[in-house]
Amino acid sequence: PSGRTPLMAGNWKMNLDHLQATHLVQKLDWTLRDGKHDFGAVEVAVLPPFTDLRSVQTLIDGDRLKLEHGAQDLSAHDSGAYTGEVSGAFLAKLGCTYVVVGHSERREYHQETDEVVNAKLKAAYKHGLTPIFCVGEGLEVRQAGEHVAHVLAQVEAGLKDLTAEQVRTIVIAYEPVWAIGTGEVATPQDAQEVCAAIRTKLAELYSGDLADGVRVLYGGSVKANNVAAIMAEEDVDGALVGGASIVPEEFASICRFR
Ligand code: PEP
């Protein structure tokens, strides 16, 4: 899609201990190389639980793997009395490129509002991390036909007070909640409709030039057998993959979508 390098990002969610993580990263790298994966043409990132990050970093650095890695969440705060939280500063030290912000599971189970998401996006930039900023509507909103308005409101609220310089590097993931972990994938046209609307919103809020460069991913039950049709859409620049990302052969096939 018009000069934007596709990104395939694997959200492992709360799965795999550090030994399993090490195994998966090695197997994924081996499978991708075996398929002569061109990492310059399609970027591949893994997003393990916090407790796996050190092992994954060590493997990637030690073996000079071309995979990127990142975390699934971060604290809005830099440091201090926030028991159980993990700061962006720590993630940066663990070599993270990316951090997911505003995943629907965080919004739903941890009451993350648009304001919290906005604070976390700011924290990510403060620590030099690239956010994968998630937005998406639930089933009722979709059935009411209000999905585009809902998602654009999330985009606008999440990006509040961020500078164009920051937003230029952001990754936005459109993840309809009804399609996450349900096996119910959005149609390519559904994905395109919302991803294109997000890009138009970015053009309105910042500039057409900025909007053209931002990667907008689709997420929600992406598998090896449905990724090609979704990736054929003009405004879809990659996928945020949950369940299928912890099966190395399946995730490698997703990365080889063409
Ligand atoms: C996700 O967790 O971001 C996701 C898209 O999950 P799944 O691929 O399992 O639907």
UniProtKB/TrEMBL annotation:
Enzyme class of the recorded protein, top EC level: isomerase
Where does the source fall among the domains of life? Bacteria
InterPro entries per the UniProt record, alphabetical: Aldolase_TIM, TIM_sf, TrioseP_Isoase_bac/euk, Triosephosphate_isomerase, Triosephosphate_isomerase_AS
Residue numbers binding substrate: N11, W12, K13, G181, S221, G242, G243
Q: Quick one: which pathway?
A: Carbohydrate biosynthesis; gluconeogenesis; Carbohydrate degradation; glycolysis; D-glyceraldehyde 3-phosphate from glycerone phosphate: step 1/1
Q: Where in the cell is it found?
A: Cytoplasm
Which keywords does this Swiss-Prot/TrEMBL entry list?
Cytoplasm, Gluconeogenesis, Glycolysis, Isomerase
Task: Report the Pfam families cross-referenced here.
Answer: TIM
Keyword ATP-binding annotated = no
Give an example GO biological process: glycolytic process
Among the GO molecular function terms of this UniProt record, one is:
triose-phosphate isomerase activity
PANTHER family found in the cross-reference section: TRIOSEPHOSPHATE ISOMERASE (PTHR21139)
Known function: Involved in the gluconeogenesis. Catalyzes stereospecifically the conversion of dihydroxyacetone phosphate (DHAP) to D-glyceraldehyde-3-phosphate (G3P).
Family the entry assigns: Belongs to the triosephosphate isomerase family.
NCBIfam families (UniProt xref): tim (TIGR00419)
Instruction: Tell me the protein's name.
Output: Triosephosphate isomerase
Species the sequence originates in: Pedococcus cremeus
Task: Give the organism's phylogenetic lineage.
Answer: Bacteria, Bacillati, Actinomycetota, Actinomycetes, Micrococcales
